[in-house]
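Look over this one:
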Amino acid sequence: MVVRRVIIKNLEIGCWEQVIMGLEVIGLVKRWRVMSVLDKISKWVQMSSSVCLK
């Protein structure tokens, strides 16, 4: 599934907004619940400046 591949790619480069949008598209997650998890993850993944995949 294309969406899933894009999500995985964005996870690798640390682009959380795209990951969340992709998960919402396939209906796996609600933004409010995932944000607290991503906050914890992003504490040790400092790649927010990387280019996001569209």
User: Anything to note?
Assistant: The mean pLDDT is 68.
